[in-house]
Design goal:
With 301 residues, the chain is mostly beta strands. It has helices spanning 2-14, 64-69, 125-128, 152-155, 197-202, 279-282, and strands at 29-30, 32-34, 37-44, 47-53, 60-63, 75-83, 88-95, 97-101, 104-108, 111-114, 121-123, 132-136, 141-145, 160-162, 169-175, 180-185, 193-195, 212-217, 222-235, 238-248, 273-277, 286-290, 295-299.
Amino acid sequence: MLYRLFIFFAVLITTDTVLASPVDKDGWLPFTSRSGVVTIDVEFEGQTRKAIIDSGSEINAINAVYVDLNKDKLSFGDKIRLQGVFGEETKALVNAVPVQMFGQRFELDALAPAQLGDAILLFGLPFLQNFIVQFDYPHQKMRFLPHSLLDMKKLANVELKKNRNRNLPAIKVETIDGKSFWLTLDTGNSGGLVVSRQFAKDRGWLDNRGLLKHSALGAVHSGNVESFNISYLKVGPFEMENVLVTVPDEGVVMNVKDSYRTSSRSAVSGAATKGLLGYDVLKHFVVTLDCKNWRAHIAVP
């Protein structure tokens, strides 16, 4: 069961047990940034395969191509409505999927079939909320720490909240005009900022800019997008220049913002997000993320 996997990681990182694994003495293990997406190695059906670590996913997932090819031998459970950046689909969750990590074998349940490229699995918030997770982007390594090890209330140096309408981390950023807004902190997003075309238009970001057209892969479908740079972005105490922004092409619908609406009679906690914050910004930092208590710290190595 996935619960047992969570416990195993906590024990692995906090003891001196010697296992045949890439974890060093301080608990760091290497990750690969594949087109900006964080992946680690797992053993799946006797082969070394990639698993995505995705703070922008409310679910854990399995490669949809693999599921289609192995329908007859897989165990399916409840159905869910899976929302990706491009579109939505109803999917049956996959149960009892064997995987080996750090020399131990587990069976994973409640995996949603999704487009994962050449990765076989994706670990989202149901996995990450069991730890404080550190991503050292410049040195391409990460580690999982128990919540008791760090006082994130004291260490936090960026504003982080739960997304108002989804169980995802929302981070506050500021642009050159001094205006701030919230974005979903997404380690599975290979871009910098991903926002709606209307949001970019309202801020004047589309005026007189050279737009680069290309395609992007979502969990459900793919779609056409355009990218450009803005001159300034502030994240926590750090100021950045020439930050990459991606918007959907004309007529393309992307699910990147919180669509929640409320009335004056109801009070809702959390942050209404305007888009996603991903690799092209995070790659400069060591990011410490506590998605259980919604706190974060960023630093340069």
